[in-house]
Write a structure and sequence with these properties.
By secondary structure, this protein is of the alpha/beta class. The protein has helices at about 20-25, 40-50, 65-75, 90, 95-100, 115-125, 155-165, 175-185, 190, 220-230, 240-250, 255-270, 290-300, 320-335; strands spanning about 5-10, 55-60, 80-85, 105-110, 135-140, 170-175, 195-200, 210-215, 280-285, 300, 305, 310-315. Strand 5 (about 135-140), helix 7 and strand 6 (about 170-175) form a beta-alpha-beta unit. The longest helix has 15 residues, at about 255-270. The structure holds pyridoxal-5'-phosphate.
Length: about 325
C-alpha cells in the first residue's frame, strides 16, 4: 500500500531520532558535564574537533548558542562583525550579538547568499582611533536563506587571506557544513583550516534531536565554556544527547547525498533551475506563497513560505523517494507547472 501520510518539507530540523539512534542514547555512558565528566560528551567533542582539524570543541544546546559564543570569542564589545545581509547570525538570532556581546554588524549582499570575497575585502576596517574596528567576518556554509548555497573553497580561501593580512578573524556558521562537504567532496578539515571558530549543528540534516558544537583552539574553547555557563547553556548528564550526535555522525553523513538527489528531483518536477539546487534546499517561485503553502498543507505537503512569492522545500531523513515523487506532483500542480 502506498504511504499517504503527510510529507513535511518545511525544515531538516523536523527529523525525529530513529530507533537505533534512540538505542544509542539509552545506552550512553554519562557523567556531569559541568564537571567535565561526561565521557560521551568528551568523546564527541574530541571527535568533532579532530574532524575539523582543530584542538577542541564544545557541545552546546543550539546552533544559535554555538554561533553567538563563537562570535563573542572573536569580537569584543564595540567592535564589528561583517556578514551577509541574509546571514542566520543576524536574521534569526534575536539580535544576540548586540544584546549580549555589544557587537555591531555591517553587511554585504551576496546574490543567493553566495560569498564574493571582493565584497568582504572592500569592507574591512582593521583599526584606528576613528572607525569601528572590524574584528571578524562570519560566513555561512551552506547558506540557508540563499537556498543551500555552497561557498566555494576558492572564495573561502580568499576571504581567509584578505582577513589574515589585517589580523581579522573568520567564524563559520557551519550549521549545514556537512551538506557542503558531501556535495563537493571537500574534507571537513580543509574547511576547518580556514576558520578560527566553526559552529556545526547535529540537529539539522544529521537527524539528532538536539545539539551543536563550537570548534576552535583549546584556549578559545576554555573561554567558550565560561560564556556557555554565563548563558545558562551548561548541562549535566548530556551524554544522552551527545550519543545521538555521535550516532548521527557515524550513520547520517554519507546519506545526505540522498537528500541532495531528492532536492534535485523536486526541482526537476517543479521546473526549478537545477543549477540553483546545490544541496538539500529548494526555492520555488510561486504567484502567492501563502496561498501555495496553505493549499499544499490541505493536501498533506508542508512547505515554508519564504517571502511573498517564494516557498522553501527541504529534504531530509524523513523524506524518501516515494514522498519526493508524491509531494513533487502535488506541488507542481499547485504551482501551475
Ligand atoms: C538552524 C541554523 C542555525 C541555528 O540553529 P539552532 O539550533 O536552531 O539554534 C544557525 N545557522 C544556520 C545557517 C542555520 O540554518
Amino acid at each position: 500500500m502506498p504511504d499517504t501520510g503527510p510529507v513535511d518539507l518545511r525544515s531538516d530540523t523536523l527529523t525525529r531520532p530513529t530507533a537505533p539512534m534512540r538505542a544509542a542514547m539509552a545506552a550512553a555512558d554519562v557523567g556531569d558535564d559541568v564537571y567535565g565528566e561526561d565521557p560521551t560528551v568528551n568523546a564527541l567533542q574530541d571527535h568533532v574537533a579532530e574532524m575539523f582539524g582543530h584542538e577542541a570543541a564544545l557541545f552546546v544546546p543550539s546552533g544559535i548558542m554555538g554561533n553567538q559564543i563563537g562570535v563573542r570569542l572573536l569580537v569584543r564589545p564595540g567592535q564589528e562583525l561583517l556578514c551577509d545581509a541574509d546571514a542566520h547570525v543576524i536574521t534569526y538570532e534575536q539580535g544576540a550579538a548586540a544584546a549580549h556581546g555589544g557587537i555591531t554588524t555591517r553587511t554585504w549582499s551576496g546574490e543567493g547568499g553566495r560569498l564574493d570575497p571582493r565584497d568582504v575585502e572592500r569592507m574591512l576596517r582593521p583599526g584606528g582611533w576613528h572607525t569601528v574596528v572590524t574584528a571578524a567576518v562570519a560566513v555561512e556554509q551552506t547558506h540557508n536563506r540563499g537556498g543551500g548555497t555552497v561557498q566555494s573553497l576558492a572564495a573561502l580561501r580568499q576571504v581567509r587571506e584578505s582577513t589574515a593580512r589585517h589580523g581579522i578573524a573568520v567564524h563559520c556558521d557551519g550549521a549545514r557544513i556537512w551538506n557542503a562537504s558531501i556535495a563537493t567532496g571537500v574534507p571537513f578539515a580543509e574547511y576547518g583550516a580556514l576558520f578560527d571558530t566553526v559552529s556545526v549543528c547535529l540537529s539539522k540534516g544529521l537527524g539528532a534531536p538536539v545539539g551543536s558544537l563550537l570548534i576552535s583552539s583549546a584556549e578559545r574553547i576554555a573561554e567558550a565554556r565560561t560564556l556557555r555557563a554565563r548563558l545558562g547553556g551548561a548541562m549535566r548528564q548530556v551524554g544522552i544527547l551527545a550519543a545521538a550526535g555521535r550516532y548521527a555522525l557515524e550513520h547520517h553523513v554519507q546519506r545526505l547525498a540522498d537528500d541532495h538527489r531528492r532536492a534535485r528531483r523536486l526541482a526537476e518536477i517543479l521546473g526549478v533551475d537545477p543549477a540553483g539546487v546545490e544541496t538539500n534546499l529548494v526555492m520555488v517561485d510561486v504567484p502567492d506563497a501563502r496561498v501555495f503553502t496553505e493549499k499544499a498543507a490541505t493536501e498533506g505537503v508542508y512547505v515554508t513560505p519564504f517571502g511573498p512569492t517564494r516557498a522553501r522545500l527541504v529534504t531530509h531523513l524523513g523524506v524518501d523517494d516515494a514522498d519526493t515523487e508524491r509531494a513533487g506532483a502535488i506541488l507542481a500542480r499547485l504551482a501551475g507547472r
